[in-house]
């Protein structure tokens, strides 16, 4: 099922108030939302907790969601608001679980993952979001612009500045 | 420029050595379970929005009704003003008499009312003309008592309305 058809199915389920909409939204958006939440919160554990809170909120606001012009942008905006609320709250856990997983096994790869988390954590949030969505979720700048509510040029600029900053943060790292 | 491009590619290659893992089934079951529980409860956007929407609709309906009433009122006044019959008695009774400011105001107030009763106005103006005529004929400043014991005062806006 292509993305457009998936969104149409979600809209249809929401319109008839069918709980199957939850599963449809999960299948279509959960991974992308989890990736962005991980980048925003810097912790896998917290990202999973906020994802759960987000889905409960999606259910509570399902009527508004059914009338949203762009489902993906609406969900991503909700996710970012949820993350911001969480960051302002006192619910933050002291110990953060890593949110980047190495492609290969080994301590060296684990250390690399940790270094990249630290480097990405030093990026401003808008740049970090773009890098994660581009590199780890394979989104185009057009899609990223739509999800984050910015123009394509803005998304591309943020990515360019992020790489520039990462160049200095990771300059001693081998390929 | 090429150096920057190469550097960017290098950074991208480094970043690509890790990934964000997909949500596990355990997380899916937990989240969807919580979502289904929330589904059974009334949606948040119903609980407080319904009375607000009702209030907004009531206010809009009230504004519409008042606007319509005002429009019809103005339409009725314009219609009465256009009719030559309503104006003719007034003009024939007092072709040369100048109206006092109070009379002008009363007439204007009467015209602004939703219903102008021409016969009441006609009677009033006839009385005024008689009074003026008698004063002129007697050569005195004494104002005669109007016939029927009526008031000297011009009919009020309420009198016009009660004559309807």
Tell me the number of helical segments of chain B per DSSP (H or I, 4 or more residues long).
8
**What's the pLDDT, averaged over the residues of chain A?**
92
Number of strands of chain B: 1
Structural class per helix/strand content of chain A?
mainly alpha
Q: Estimate nothing, just give the exact number of structural domains of chain A.
A: 2
Q: What fold name goes in the CATH topology slot of the largest domain in chain A?
A: Rna Polymerase Sigma Factor, Chain: A
Computed Rg of chain B:
40 Å
- Unreliable spans of chain A are none
Morphology call of chain A: globular
Q: What's the structural domain tally of chain B?
A: 2
Total E-strand runs of chain A = 1
Describe this structure in words.
The complex is a heterodimer of chains A (175) and B (164). Chain A is an all-alpha fold and 175 residues long. Chain A has 2 domains: 3-88, Rna Polymerase Sigma Factor, Chain: A (Orthogonal Bundle); 107-169, Arc Repressor Mutant, subunit A (Orthogonal Bundle). Chain A has helices at 3-15, 20-41, 44-60, 62-66, 71-88, 107-121, 125-136, 141-148, 152-169, and one strand at 101-102. In chain A, α3 crosses α5, α7 (125-136) crosses α9 and α8 (141-148) crosses α9. The longest helix of chain A has 22 residues, at 20-41. Chain A is globular, with a radius of gyration of 17 Å. Chain A starts with a helix and ends in a 6-residue tail after the last helix. Chain B has 2 domains: 23-82; 84-164, no CATH class. Helix content of chain B is 71%, strand content 1%. The A-B interface holds A 19, 22-23, 26, 30-31, 34-35, 38, 48, 51-52, 55-56, 58-64, 99-104, 109, 112-113, 116, 131-132, 135-137, 163, 166-167, 170, 173, 175 and B 7-8, 10-23, 27-28, 30-32, 34-36, 38-39, 41, 43-46. β1 of chain A pairs antiparallel with β1 (18-19) of chain B, so a sheet runs across the interface.
């Amino acid at each position: 099922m292509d993305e457009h058809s998936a969104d149409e199915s979600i809209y249809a389920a929401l319109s008839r108030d069918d709980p199957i909409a939850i599963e449809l939204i999960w299948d279509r958006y959960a991974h992308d939302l989890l990736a962005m939440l991980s980048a925003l919160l810097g912790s896998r554990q917290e990202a999973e907790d906020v994802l759960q809170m987000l889905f409960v909120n999606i259910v509570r606001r399902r009527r508004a969601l059914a009338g949203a012009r762009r489902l993906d942008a609406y969900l991503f905006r909700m996710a970012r608001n949820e993350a911001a609320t969480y960051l302002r709250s006192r619910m933050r856990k002291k110990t953060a679980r890593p949110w980047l997983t190495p492609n290969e096994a080994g301590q060296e790869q684990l250390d690399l993952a940790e270094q990249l988390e630290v480097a990405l954590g030093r990026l401003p949030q808008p740049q970090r979001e773009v890098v994660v969505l581009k590199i780890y979720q394979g989104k185009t700048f057009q899609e990223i612009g739509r999800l984050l509510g910015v123009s394509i040029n803005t998304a591309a600029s943020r990515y360019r500045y992020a790489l520039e900053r990462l160049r200095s943060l990771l300059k001693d790292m081998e390929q | 420029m090429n150096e920057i491009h190469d550097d960017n590619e290098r950074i991208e290659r480094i970043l690509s050595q890790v990934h964000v893992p997909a949500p596990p089934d355990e997380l899916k079951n937990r989240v969807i379970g919580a979502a289904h529980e929330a589904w059974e409860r009334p949606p948040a956007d119903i609980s407080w929005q319904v009375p607000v929407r009702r209030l907004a609709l009531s206010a809009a309906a009230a504004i519409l009704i008042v606007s319509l009433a005002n429009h019809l009122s103005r339409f009725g006044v314009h219609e009465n003003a256009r009719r030559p019959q309503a104006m003719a008695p007034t003009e024939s009774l007092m072709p040369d008499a100048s109206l006092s400011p109070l009379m002008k105001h009363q007439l204007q107030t009467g015209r602004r009312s939703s219903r102008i009763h021409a016969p009441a106005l006609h009677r009033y103006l006839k009385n005024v003309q008689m009074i003026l005529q008698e004063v002129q004929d007697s050569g005195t400043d004494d104002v005669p008592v109007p016939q029927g014991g009526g008031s000297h005062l011009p009919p009020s806006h309420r009198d016009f309305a009660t004559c309807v």
